[in-house]
C-alpha cells in the first residue's frame, strides 16, 4: 500500500515543482524587462503608470492626445497593481500613452495606500476629474466625452 501512495505523490510533487519554476521564470522575465529599460536610461520615476505592466499594442495619435488632455485637465486614474480591470484600462491606451496616464498606485506602498484612503477610493479603477468620480472600467469614448476631449472625427463632423 505505501508503494501505491508514493507513486501518486511523485506526479503531484513534480507538478508543484514545475509550477514554482514557471512562476520564477515569469517573475524573472518581468524583472529583466524592467532592468533593460533602466539600462537604456529610463528610471522607475519616469513612468507614472506604477507597476500595472505594459500595454500590448502601440498607441495611436488619438490615444496620446487623450492622455495629454486628461493630464492637462487634472484627471487622476486610481488603481492597484493586482487589478485586472486596471490593467485593461491602461491597455486601452496602448503602450506609449499607457505609460503617461495620470496613474496613482493604491496598493504598492504605504504612501500610495494612504493617498488613496485620503481620496476615499472604494473601487478600482476609479477616475477623478474636477471632484467627480467614475468607478470601473471606462472606454476611450466614455473618457473622451466625460472630459470634454474633442476628437478629430468629432471636430470634423461639427464643422460641416
What's the layout of helices and strands?
Blueprint (H helix, E strand, L loop, with lengths): L1 H38 L21 H13 L2 E4 L4 H8 L2 H7 L2 E3 L4 H9 L7 E4 L2 E4 L4 H8 L4 H7 L2
Parallel strand pairs: 1-2
Antiparallel strand pairs: 1-3, 3-4
Structure description:
By secondary structure, the chain is of the alpha+beta class. It has two domains: 2-46; 61-154, 3-Layer(aba) Sandwich (Glutaredoxin). The protein is 56% helix and 9% strand. It has seven helices and four strands, in the order H-H-E-H-H-E-H-E-E-H-H. The protein has helices at 2-39, 61-73, 84-91, 94-100, 110-118, 140-147, 152-158, and strands spanning 76-79, 103-105, 126-129, 132-135. A four-stranded mixed beta sheet has the order 2-1-3-4. A hairpin with a 2-residue loop joins strand 3 (126-129) and strand 4. Helix 2 (61-73) packs parallel to helix 4 (94-100). The chain is globular. Residues 17-50 and 154-160 have low confidence and may be disordered.
Radius of gyration: 21 Å
Order of helices and strands: HHEHHEHEEHH
The average pLDDT value, as a whole number, equals: 76
Q: Considering the protein shown, what is the CATH homologous superfamily of the largest domain?
A: Glutaredoxin
CATH classification class of the largest domain: Alpha Beta
Helix content: 55-70%
Number of E strands: 4
Question: How many distinct folded domains?
Answer: 2
Adjacency order of strands in the biggest sheet:
2-1-3-4
Helical segment tally? 7
Strand content: 5-15%
Structural class: alpha+beta
Shape: globular
What distance separates the N and C termini? 84 Å
Which spans have pLDDT < 50 for at least 5 consecutive residues?
Answer: 17-50, 154-160
Specify the biggest β-sheet: 4 strands, mixed
Q: The CATH topology of the largest domain is what?
A: Glutaredoxin
| CATH architectural grouping of the largest domain | 3-Layer(aba) Sandwich
Amino acid at each position: 500500500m505505501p508503494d501505491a501512495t508514493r507513486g501518486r505523490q511523485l506526479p503531484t510533487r513534480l507538478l508543484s515543482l514545475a509550477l514554482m519554476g514557471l512562476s520564477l521564470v515569469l517573475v524573472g522575465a518581468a524583472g529583466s524587462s524592467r532592468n533593460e529599460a533602466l539600462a537604456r536610461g529610463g528610471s522607475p520615476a519616469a513612468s507614472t503608470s506604477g507597476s500595472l505592466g505594459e500595454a500590448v499594442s502601440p498607441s495611436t495619435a488619438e490615444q496620446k492626445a487623450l492622455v495629454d488632455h486628461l493630464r492637462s485637465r487634472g484627471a487622476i486614474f486610481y488603481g492597484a497593481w493586482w487589478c485586472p480591470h486596471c490593467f485593461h484600462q491602461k491597455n486601452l491606451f496602448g503602450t506609449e500613452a499607457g505609460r503617461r496616464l495620470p496613474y496613482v498606485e493604491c496598493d504598492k506602498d504605504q504612501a500610495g495606500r494612504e493617498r488613496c484612503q485620503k481620496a476615499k477610493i472604494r473601487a478600482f479603477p476609479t477616475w477623478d476629474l474636477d471632484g467627480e468620480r467614475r468607478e470601473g472600467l471606462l472606454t476611450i469614448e466614455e473618457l473622451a466625452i466625460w472630459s470634454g476631449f474633442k476628437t478629430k472625427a468629432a471636430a470634423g463632423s461639427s464643422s460641416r
